[in-house]
Amino acid sequence: MFLFNNKQQILVRNLTNRHRVFQDCCAILLQFLQICIDLGRKAYLLIAQAVHNKALAGSSPASDFGEFLQLPKTSHFEIQQFDRFIMPHFSSQNISVEQNHVLMIRMDNAKIISHILKAINFKENSVFCCTKDGLKVTVEDMKSVQLNAFIEPGIFQSYVVKEEEIKFQLNLTVLLECLNVFGSSGLQSGTSPALKLYYNGHGTPVSILLEESGVITDCKIRTVHFDPVLDYDFGTSNVIGRIIMSSECLKEVFCELDSTSDCVQFSMSPDSANFRITTFGHSGTYHVDIPKASDVIESLRCTSPVSFKYKLSLMKPSIRPLGIAQKVSLRIDDTGLICFQFMIKVEDNHNCYIDFYCPADVDFEEDE
Amino acid sequence: MKFRGKMIDPNCIKQFIGILGCMTKLGKSCILRITTTDLYFIVRESQTISASPLIWCALDEGHFFSEFGMEGLSTVDNEIYLEFVAENVARTLSALKVSGTAKSVKIKLTKKLSSPCLTFEIDLPSGTNHSRLVVHDIPVNLVPRRLWNDYLEPEAMDPDISVHMPQLRLMKSIVERMKNLANMATIHVTSEGLLTLTVETEAVSVTSHFDNLHVEKKSIGKEEEASVTIELKRLSNFLGHEQLNPQKVVCDVLQSKLMHLNFLSDSYTLQYFLPGINDQ
């Protein structure tokens, strides 16, 4: 087992046979263990093989330690020395390991978070914004198209945020490589590595600890000061058209859209029976009509006719989240800004959401 | 020079195909060395002996072949050294795999159209009572005697520390991911059975810890730990193509110089020598 602190390890090397020192060490270690156990199911303790020194009057420090912790006597222990840099941390009684962490997340299955984040990784840079309501990760392109992933605290085994809002920017592609270090098989299959993520504030790297079958990988990813992201204000008062539908159907439509067309047009109106998706390609104009009454549309609300065009190339980042979602809602406001909200089911009764914002292609705005 | 071997056991055939398949994916050309007792496959990426990785595989002929006969270059040098292009054999192997279990496979050294070939005669089951024989001729070059010394068996190395690697599957995946982050990684082994793999770049540092490894050997008088920096792409390439299921994998490290992976099985051994990169 491994014992973790800020530096991921406590080493106790060459512990001497001075009994009193040894007892002190045990007391502190026990306290530390308790904290680690509070941190999560994967608190490990490494007690490696013993002592090069003389045993204490018949009993070796190893077995004393074992008794102290109520560990079986027959276990094979080795006690190494406290790192002198760590000792000062533990001089006070109610030591909190986490006192330096402003953000701390624990998950039993890291695949969930990598499944969601992979869907928004259309650009390398991402901005993380952590509040008590959960984790929001934003990836933006050229101050226009934006993907946001929302993961609520209930999805994590433990979610601690010490400030009102914690924001930092890091390379999402690198983060995903780290999260998938034990293999990138799908969400349902294969391994489920345990994850602990923490961050100590501005300028420090994000630390990630992953454990799988006894192998532990720790990563430190550099953070940079975040660039402000566009805050799309999608007030409900401006929304003209809103649809909730099955994402599988929409995905089929999107995959078959004519790629020779520069843009795609979404149209709906209170009078028309259909939600229409149109492309204008080399071979002609294609309309895909999805009847409001069909099974795939859960609800469609439209206060007045709305029809806007969007550049097909800008729509591309929506394909991946569409592929992993179960339901999608589309909202278009009076400026033509479209917001897709993808609902993704993870684990039994939890959902994560991904938002996608795309402005309309303004040169070609037309009413139906 | 003569060589003739016949395999009839389906498991042996399958294993032979696996080994040969692995070797052919690891380099452009492969050397086959035949002695009276063993078959050796040797792949070396480039001609410079010290700097490039070397893959050395030895098969015990007694295990694989029910019939085996060879006559080497001369009575003094009773060995055969052949060189063949990996891609040519790969096609033979895919034919073998696709057509199901062969009843027997005969491998012979032949001369077709006045050039030497390694001929695979594969006896396949067919719907009728007649047997179906598929013959593949793979052109080979005979390696001249003066070059035989280039392919000598690598000296049994005296590693600083040697550990048993049980979690190769995880290591494969980790190395694959690390390859996307950096060019080089450092392997560090301690005599307490801890192996760590580390990459460090400006943007990220990743360390994987494999603990509680059984220490096979520790050189007396040397340090308690050893480390070497290796090129990730090469290691990832090797681990990625390695499809074998060995009974045991041992990792040896010679401080700053070499990382050696030894795949041990009853009937064959496969060794991968990966030289270290000097940080200077």
UniProtKB/TrEMBL annotation, chain B:
Location within or outside the cell: Nucleus
A cellular-component GO term for this protein: site of double-strand break
Alphabetical keyword list: Nucleus
Transmembrane segments: none
Pfam entry (one): Hus1
Family per record: Belongs to the HUS1 family.
Name this protein carries in UniProt: Checkpoint protein
Lineage: Eukaryota, Metazoa, Ecdysozoa, Arthropoda, Crustacea
